[in-house]
Amino acid sequence: MNGFDEAWSYLPSYLGAHVLLSMSALLLGIAISLPLAVLASRVRSLGGALLGFAGVVQTIPSLALLALFYPLLLALSHFTSETFGFGFRALGFLPALLALTLYSMLPVLRNTVTALAGMDPAVKMAARGVGMTPWQSLILVELPLAAPVIMAGVRTAAVWVIGTATLATPVGQTSLGNYIFTGLQIENWVFVTFGVVAAAALALVVDRLLALAESGMVLRARGRVFAAAAGLVLVVGASLYPMFGSTGHRVVIGTKNFDEQYILGKVIADRLSTAGVSSTQRDDLGSNVIFRALAAGDVDVYVDYSGTIWTNAMRRSDSPGRKAVLSNIAQWTAKTYGIRDLGPLGFENAYALAMRRDRAAALHIHDLADLANHASELRIGGDFEIFSRPEWRALVRAYGLRFPVQRQYEPNLMYSALVSGDVDVITAFSSDGRIARYGLTLLADPKGALPPYDAILLVSPAHARDEGFLAALKPLIGAIDLKTMQQANLMVDRTDDKQTPQEAAHWLEGRIAR
Amino acid sequence: MIELYSISKAYDRSAALAVRDLSLRVADGEFLVLIGESGSGKTTTLNMLNRLIEPSAGRIAVDGEDVLALDAVSLRRRMGYVFQGGGLFPHMTVKENIAVTPKLLGWPRETAAARADELLDLVRLAPQDYRDRLPRELSGGQQQRVALARALAAKPKIMLMDEPFGALDPLIRDDLAEDYRQIHNTLGLTTIFVTHDMTEAMLLGDRIAVMKDGALVQIGTPNELLARPADDFVRALIETPRRRARRLAQILAVAP
């Protein structure tokens, strides 16, 4: 199966989720904006406040708006489950829906308020004169006359929402953005292009259909409006149709935003599927988000790394040794959240500073202590998380590292930046296949400032005692060594004979079975 | 019968009164013309009759009933109103425009449609040619005929008209004015008609009420105004059509 075929095979589920999300947000946005705009046209002071608020929302970067709703909903869900005994899923559909709804409101609000305010006073006077109540004037005269302008606002909102919905992937909502985010991570440009084209095509089709409806309203041609409505129903229906086949509860597998995580996610999915458990995958989640999502039951299983839990979730800064860290984590997660730690997979994926071999040799840098002497003249690149993680603070404290230039990259582009000389040092991952591929030098940590990073399999409280579920995953424990994982990662990373995560997962499963 | 007792209207507290202490009485079947310069309060007075504008002080009675105690919306449905420039709803067809008040009153669809055709005949527009057109597909004169039909649709006894033919070409205007006076007579309507054109006022009105700065200056038949103008303003106003008539007579006498 080549990249295009694989991308094509995901289309029904990605497109369906994308259409469901964006159309729900659009409808909800219209349902809120229209009455608000009508109210604003009657109460003048409200109009300014509303448009001001919607304008401010519009200036928030869309990704940030989406990201903000997760902690907000999580706190709310905590509150409702404590107070009323029920919580809800704070990850995925809900935060994405709310953020996109807010985002869709400005054009509809603005156009409706403008159209109603700019209505010819003679027409409104005539409506009163023939004996209409204010409500009848609104429904029979003002809204029909404003309809083309309102429709133009709906069109703008639709295009925005469909485009922005691609950013719902990092908050755990499947969308056409999964192609883009995953594709960017594994440098699969077929995936990225596929996602971009699919989202653009969807936006274009919806925009054309709404334009048809708009022109129908301007020309008072009912046929056009009906044709547009029928077209929209057809597009939405066809997109959602595949989703009705998959009923019942599905296990959610979480992944962070790099290759190894995608591959392991597929391996877990395959094992569960063999045991008769169907699953869906939530990709590209941040380290803190994914752990909290597991605790809250929004994610059922994922692979984390002991050092990440140790420093970020448990807020420990000591290093009592590999075994002690692992057993402490297992006890702590079980006691604090009811999370089941199934144990280590058998390899470590540590944070480690890496340099190009020639550069390290020229400067005689072998470990972090050497690096500290040269740090003032070097530039460092990191992923999105590292510089705000406790591990980085520990490194800075232990070695007195101070870099004049500090840049953040997508994990993939970070390696390219190092190889091309844009930065001199990066915060690499020790299991990454690219360390061998580019011949990078990993700098030793003589003071032991960084904790161990054993890959461990974590299961949500809901499945912590689900023996069938656990039995399906237990064969993975201790089954993957560092070399095997690096090789699997390299299959996805490399440019020649590039494989998809699914293909690498198949290969890895073959090695485990042996 | 329509009676106004000491009606006043102030748009805001500080400004001068738009209408000041105005009293008048309109008999059933009468055609009363309100005339004055712009800003004289004639349109404000007209609009207070069906409470498009609420009076600040005074009392209005229609057939002895206190208008201010009635529901304003149902009051408006009982009166016909023709707006300056027509005021047709641009998104509705001719038929829908005419049937709008009957529909608001809950008439059955067929009755309202039949009424629309009947009125198109009355205002001399062939129903089969015009009923499904939109207002923008009509000339100014045709739009005004439809506006007239719409005002008559719910069979009102009282018609309020605000410079209805003001924006039309003179020929069409005379034509329409004559047609309307006929309709007024045939249907036995009571009409209050606002204009600033004295010739039109004298040709149409049974009586003429002259307004200036929000107050009623004089009210009477055209002949009474001619014979005994109350002041110089009325005299000047009445002089215009007479002077034009004399000039016209001279020109026509000289012509071969």
Count the DSSP helices of chain A. Answer: 21
- Which range does the strand content of chain A fall in? 5-15%
The assembly state of the depicted protein chains is heterodimer
Distance between the termini of chain B: 51 Å
Number of DSSP-assigned strands of chain B: 10
Shape of chain A from CA axes? elongated
Note the main sheet of chain A. 5 strands, mixed
> What is the radius of gyration of chain A?
27 Å
Number of helical stretches of at least 4 residues of chain B: 11
* Total number of beta strands of chain A: 10
Structural category of chain A is alpha/beta
Q: Percentage of helical residues of chain A? A: 55-70%
Strand order of the largest sheet of chain B: 6-7-8-3-9-10
Low-pLDDT regions of chain A: none
By secondary-structure content and strand pairing, the structural class of chain B works out as alpha/beta
Q: What general form of chain B does the structure show?
A: globular
Rg measurement of chain B, Å: 19 Å
How widely separated are the two ends of chain A? 24 Å
Q: Beta-sheet strand percentage of chain B? A: 15-25%
Structure commentary:
The complex is a heterodimer of chains A (514) and B (256). Chain A is an alpha/beta fold and 514 residues long. Chain A has a five-stranded mixed sheet with strand order 7-6-8-5-9. The radius of gyration of chain A is 27 Å and the shape is elongated. Chain A starts with a helix and ends with a helix. At the A-B interface, helix 5 and helix 6 of A face helix 2 and helix 4 of B.
Secondary structure blueprint with pairings:
The complex is a heterodimer of chains A (514) and B (256).
Chain A: H1 3-42, H2 44-59, H3 62-83, H4 93-117, H5 121-129, H6 134-164, H7 177-185, H8 189-218, H9 222-245, E1 251-254, H10 259-274, E2 279-282, H11 287-296, E3 301-305, H12 306-313, H13 322-337, E4 340-348, E5 351-356, H14 357-363, H15 368-374, E6 379-382, H16 390-399, E7 405-408, H17 411-419, E8 425-429, H18 433-437, E9 440-442, E10 454-459, H19 467-473, H20 482-493, H21 501-513
Parallel strand pairs in A: 1-2, 6-7, 6-8
Antiparallel strand pairs in A: 3-10, 4-10, 5-8, 5-9
Helix pairs in contact in A: 1-2, 1-4, 1-6, 1-8, 1-9, 2-4, 3-4, 4-6, 5-6, 6-8, 7-8, 8-9, 10-21, 20-21
Chain B: E1 2-9, E2 19-26, E3 31-35, H1 42-49, E4 57-62, E5 65-66, H2 72-78, E6 79-82, H3 94-98, H4 100-104, H5 109-122, H6 127-130, H7 140-152, E7 158-162, H8 170-187, E8 190-195, H9 198-204, E9 207-212, E10 215-220, H10 222-227, H11 232-254
Parallel strand pairs in B: 3-8, 3-9, 6-7, 7-8
Antiparallel strand pairs in B: 1-2, 1-4, 4-5, 9-10
